Amino acid sequence: MRARFSTFLALSILGCGAAPAPGPATPPATNTTPTSPSAAALPPWTPSTPSTPAAAPTAAVPTLAAEAHPETRPLAVDLASLPRIQGITISPDGQHIAYVVKETRLDPDARPSESDTSGGWKSEAQLWVVGRAGGAPRQLTRAEKPVGNPKWLPDSRAIAFVRANGNGRKIHILPLDGGEAEVLDVGELEFEDYEFAPDGRSIAFTATPPRTAAEKEATWRSGGVVDEGSRFRSSQLWVLERGGKTPRRVTPGQENVFAFRWSPDGRKFVVLTSPSAEPHDASMRHSARILSAVDGAVLRDLTREPRPHGFVAWSPDGRHVAVQSGKNTLSMLNALHVYEVDSGRSWDVADKLDATIASFAWSGDSRNLTLVVAERTGTKLVRVPAAGGSATQLGRTPRLLGPIGTTDRSGRWAATFSSSSTDLGAPTLVDLQTGALQVVASQSNRIAGWTIAKTEVVRWKNADGLEIEGLLTVSPHAGTGPAPLLVAPHGGPDDVSQDGFNPFVQYMAARGYSVLRPNYRGSFGYGQAFYAANRGRLGEVELADIESGVDSLIAAGRVDPQRLYYGGWSWGGYVTAWTIGHTRRYRAAMVGAGVVDVVAQYAGSDINHGDAAQWEFRGDPWKQPEEFADSNPLRWLSKVATPTLIAHGDEDSRVPPINGMLLYRALTDIGCEVRFHRYPREPHGFGEPAHQVHLWTTWAAWYAAH
To answer: Which domains does the chain have, with CATH numbers?
Structure first.
């Protein structure tokens, strides 16, 4: 259940972006040592009795009108209306940065309709471009249908994007200086990703082959029976000549092609494949190889055994390929292998770093690579020689960086997304030689006038004496004395809470809660040993690390021990369910899309079985049932007395909704106060703004009612 359980709303709105003036670096860390009992020494259970609701259940479900605050305190509707910046890419000549702005707005004139599921919200996504030196951004598209996935043509004179057109999506090529867009039609194929050849004359893309007439008839004659073992169709690699009518299929096999890159001379591809398109295979069992661009013949297998891979990129001279992967991990990407294309020889240029590598980029002369590394609660840039050798630290970045999307032809400039704890995210230019950052399309006016809560790093010792770290956002509205505290563990469990702008945290801080986001053992950014320390100890490790942090804040007089609250999404929901089964000191809890029964999760989740279970539980439930039983929140639900709100998407394939239903049934049976909201159409990360607003207002009101 690793790294695929993202924090809260899968960044569906937490990653929304508005930009900044350059902010200060992370505030000085506050070291707090626990003096009160940690989770390892919690008092014994009191007799189990049903809790008494602190307020009538209906008081916990507000309307938008009921959520009234001064303008300095953002409402959920304000946060759902923030722009989301996507698809940031720099032109090959390094002169322009393009990006997509997705915006949602609540229509004040909308009225209820049985055919409308939007709740009165309207959205659009448009393409923008800005010069490398900044200045006023220019909007390139204005049509009603949203655009996405922008890609520059090699000559930098035009940019492509994807837009729905007729019965499917099509690639549009728009000249930068204006004019009609060229539309590429790939026929009945539903393409996924695409890339232009180095000469710009053709385009490669991935798509699943269309079903044959015989396959369609067989499905019809069976009444639509689904064969679980073959229902996921593998994507293949195709090439379409510009001006051509029929795409040419490059890969003839059954393997699933999910990533590819043209070689600089246009004669080869490097591809990442999985044995099938089944989600577990597609997320965990990756291989890298070199193919002929003419007929798809395998020229060289780069990797020897399937494992998770991340980014892949050719060196500008075409002699090497760099592939990001993991070593002695499940999904922490801590290795960067450089392969010599002619010989197949390889070496790990990050072997001595013990780093979580977020992304990387080649230098223009092919001699170095620059890595974006997740380091504790922030990011840093590291340069490593492509031939191996000592790394050069470019330093910790003053803003939290997203992955490097693209670089210019010189390899000096990169475009990405960055934010700080007090600034919304924005398109950002990175100087890969010096590490300097420049926000080129600030959106900070979107939060002008809001009172933004400050975030600091806090550290404490757990019961074993190991230092644990987290982020504490201190509410500016808590009044005098120790503040009420919301504990909000991240998802994953192999994820990490970092010091970027977090709308949910700001929303709760605006309602008077200080928010603790602990980086318990299992988190990225603290080295391989820290990452692997929760194997076979899930639940136990998170409880010990997080509760000792709460104890330390209480002992330091920073939070009110009588006003403690808990809540998280995904694996954060698992930790919440586990915690309320082991302590009653929290006044209310929220379990969002949380794992409640690890065996049901193994059987029902799209990817959290097989290799994931072997790593996390050191087995599977049919052979090592005791390993699953030891880490199963379901075992402890009879002890829960904490009023609990549950939220789950009806279409969640990552953490199936049966988890939410199990928790609801259990707490109802024992007489614990509980409320369960199911959200139609939603997958693991919520996307509909009406649902996001309802979730956040209900979440805050649930705490306020207790």
So the answer is: 55-77+447-704 (3.40.50.1820)
